[in-house]
Design goal:
Elements lengths: L4 H62 L4 H6 L3 H16 L4 H4 L19 H4 L17 H4 L7 H20 L5 H31 L10 H18 L12 H8 L3 H19 L4 H25 L8 E2 L2 H8 L9 E7 L2 E5 L2 E5 L2 E7 L5 H4 L4 E8 L6
Parallel strand pairs: 1-2
Antiparallel strand pairs: 2-5, 3-4, 5-6
Helix pairs in contact: 1-3, 7-8, 7-9, 9-11, 11-12
Length: 395
């Protein structure tokens, strides 16, 4: 059989082509795999970056609720753990009527005493939080960062603050003593210790202010909480409410208080006592902030109580006008602290955006808190809460 050169060459050529195509296919597959790996890496990095940006945004927004615009990036620069710790402390301080931004010390140990406000944007802290994935900040468990939220004070202030806590403990204990002689002795000891400690605190703060410290810090957050807790306990006990040593309420007592304005009135009594002591002593700004918080909570709770219970106002406590209500609130009148009242207010005209607006006849309802809070807390004895229609009638 004759040899077919053309067929041989054609077959060889086809074999070379197939091999080339096979090599190209393998190269394409490798390229596809490489592209796939690069794409996965790109998508992973983008997802990681998006997640970090989302965490930054979330933490920034939460921090801005409690801290000032300059404090937020400083906190974020310490990483995620520090930010979350600061948020938890911010919630704690807020729940205990304290301003978180006043408890935070910047690295230069200067506390920025300005009102907290939201930062402009996430970008303001993006640079400060580039290391979001880093672990807990150095010293978070008890070192540098955590100490910024404890409000360090001098040993002198520490001693005086602890003495004031002891004074309140003595007063709480004295109220529970049945032995009159022992009670009198303990109260005398409390009075003497209080006078000495407050006088020392006053002199220390005056000296520091004269030395250029515009806001000497006399109490840590822990001291403020301890003083408030004990002051609240004394206030409740003075109002005839039985509590534990630190204000603990039994189940039955708590149920009874839930349907009254007793707790709100006790907050006012406690705030007043704290204010008197602070005025006599260090005039500490942190304490004044706590007092303002207690005062606001008390007033808001009293207003809420009237709003939900105005139909319980008795006829004897409804007056023809505000002057009659004020006369009833004087010593010897029928309005007692904690009592709800209402008085008739005739129609009048007021200006709103430059226009006259007519206001119809109404009854104004509120709570008489007593006249002793005007001087120290700036609160009028008649705390108006809501307006009622002129057709309203007491039961």
């Amino acid at each position: 059989m004759a040899f077919n050169m053309s067929a041989f060459l054609g077959g060889a050529a086809m074999g070379v082509v197939d091999r080339i195509e096979d090599i190209e296919r393998k190269a394409e597959k490798e390229s596809d795999r490489a592209y796939g790996r690069d794409e996965k890496d790109r998508l992973y990095n983008r997802a990681k970056r998006d997640k970090e940006n989302a965490i930054t945004k979330e933490l920034t927004e939460k921090l801005s609720v409690f801290y000032t615009p300059d404090q937020v990036p400083d906190i974020m620069s310490n990483g995620v753990a520090a930010a979350r710790y600061a948020i938890s402390r911010g919630e704690y301080y807020t729940n205990n009527n304290m301003k978180a931004h006043l408890q935070y010390q910047m690295p230069n140990n200067d506390i920025t005493n300005i009102s907290a406000a939201p930062v402009g944007s996430v970008g303001d802290v993006a640079k400060a939080s580039e290391e979001l994935s880093s672990g807990p900040p150095e010293g978070l468990g008890g070192g540098s960062f955590a100490s910024r939220l404890t409000g360090n004070i001098t040993p002198e202030y520490e001693t005086m603050a602890n003495a004031q806590i002891d004074v309140l403990n003595m007063r709480i204990k004295a109220a529970r003593l049945s032995d009159g002689e022992a009670k009198e002795k303990l109260l005398k000891d409390a009075d003497l210790t209080e006078t000495i400690s407050l006088d020392m605190a006053r002199k220390e703060s005056e000296a520091r202010r004269e030395g250029g410290d515009s806001d000497p810090k006399a109490y840590t957050a822990s001291h403020l909480f301890s003083l408030e807790k004990r002051s609240d306990t004394i206030a409740l006990n003075e109002m005839g409410v039985e509590t534990g040593q630190l204000g603990e309420l039994g189940k039955k007592v708590a149920e009874k208080l839930r349907g009254s304005n007793t707790m709100a009135m006790s907050y006012l009594r406690s705030a007043d006592a704290l204010n008197i002591r602070n005025n006599k002593g260090p005039k500490d700004e942190g304490m004044y902030q706590l007092i303002d918080g207690k005062k606001d909570i008390a007033v808001n709770n009293l207003q809420a109580y009237v709003t939900g219970n105005y139909n319980k106002i008795i006829k004897a406590n409804v007056y023809a006008n505000v002057d009659a209500a004020k006369n009833a609130a004087k010593v010897g009148g029928n309005l007692k602290p904690g009592t709800m009242y209402a008085y008739f207010k005739p129609a009048y005209v007021k200006m709103v955006d430059g226009k006259e607006v007519s206001v119809p006849d109404t009854y104004v309802a509120g709570t008489f808190i007593g006249d002793n809070y005007q001087a120290n807390l700036g609160l009028d004895g008649l705390q108006n809460a809501i307006s009622l229609p002129s057709t309203w009638l007491p039961k």
